[in-house]
Design goal:
alpha+beta, four-stranded mixed beta sheet, 8 helices, single chain
């Protein structure tokens, strides 16, 4: 299956030798610009946001980034890119129940074919073994026997979901294009995927009967989609908790204040106590992701105290007066 190479560095607007911090910073800036909740052109922004997530997914992980760099070098030199040894993506691991060898492409899962082929979890499993069930019926064919019923193979891919979808649940329309690797014949089937509320990253969503076709009356295999969380410009998932950042002015940290912060359900007021320190985490209980029946994780904000880069003449006078009057010595504060 021919796929188009994705230049993830170009997507994020960083050079190939960018540091991990530069990649993170570039992603956050672009993600804020193209997040569907704030962009005016929702459709264009949604596609761009998916592309940004995919690039960040690969480049933010050292192992995936190293593999991507090797893959890019091979691609540019005209070499034949290869998958990980012993692992097949986008193709039945062995010929399916119908004796043919197939490749699969998903649409609507949030990832490109390039990602699925080299960094996703798309596989085919012959013989009916799945993460949930044992082998399907097996059997041979004698001289006068009809073929025994054999269950079709399962296929596995990845699906990118937002924190909002993880919280509330959703239904996603996807399509699966099945290509006979020997004849090149293609057929496409659409199906509906129910994303259950509370699904966690790494879990598998099962779509029954949409995998490979069975043989001799055997049932079709299933599709298993591994959940990946869409990266958010402001929060990171830590289990069921969400972790973000809160920038404060020096006087807000010293005197205390009340600020408006965003949550999955909208804006709320957050009290900042006087004397709040750099790096301190403020918590909003029950504002994270689902953590089981009727439970939610928490939303944390790591405090970052920002110092003005430039000040006017009057402000400079006030800062100097404060410096002269204050008895605070940061080198003896501990």
């Amino acid at each position: 299956m021919s796929v188009e190479f994705k230049d993830y560095y170009e997507v994020l607007g960083v050079p190939p030798k960018a540091t991990a911090e530069e990649i993170k910073k570039a992603f956050r800036a672009l993600a804020r610009k193209y997040h569907p909740d704030v962009a005016k052109d929702k459709k264009t922004a949604e596609e761009k946001f998916k592309e940004l997530n995919e690039a960040h997914e690969v480049l933010s992980d050292p192992e995936s980034r190293a593999k991507y760099d090797q893959l890019g070098a091979s691609w540019k030199s005209g070499g034949e890119p290869r998958n990980d040894p012993g692992r097949t993506r986008g193709r039945a691991a062995r010929p399916g129940a119908d004796g043919e060898d197939y490749e699969f492409q998903f649409e609507g899962t949030g990832f490109s074919d390039f990602f699925e082929q080299f960094f996703g979890g798309r596989t085919g499993r012959a013989g009916g073994r799945s993460p949930f069930e044992g082998h399907g019926a097996a059997g041979g064919v004698g001289e006068s026997e009809e073929p025994a019923a054999k269950r079709g193979h399962d296929i596995q891919g990845d699906i990118l979901i937002s924190f909002d979808e993880a919280l509330k649940g959703a239904t996603r329309a996807i399509s699966v294009r099945r290509t006979n690797a020997r004849t090149g014949q293609e057929e496409t089937e659409s199906c509906s995927v129910r994303i259950p509320a509370g699904v966690r990253a790494g879990q598998l969503i099962r779509v029954r009967g949409k995998g490979g076709a069975g043989l001799g009356g055997g049932g079709s295999g299933d599709i298993y989609l591994r959940v990946r969380y869409s990266q958010h410009p402001d929060w990171q998932a830590r289990g069921a908790d969400l972790v973000g950042h809160l920038e404060l002015a020096p006087w807000e940290a010293v005197l205390g204040t009340t600020v408006s912060v965003e949550t999955l359900e909208g804006s709320v007021s957050l009290k900042v106590h006087a004397g709040t320190q750099q790096g301190h985490q403020l918590r909003l209980r029950g504002k994270g992701l689902p953590a089981g029946a009727a439970k939610r994780g928490d939303l944390y904000f790591g405090v970052s105290i920002q110092v003005p880069a430039e000040i006017g003449e009057e402000e400079e006078h006030l800062w100097k007066e404060l410096a002269a009057r204050s008895k605070f010595d940061p080198r003896k504060a501990s």
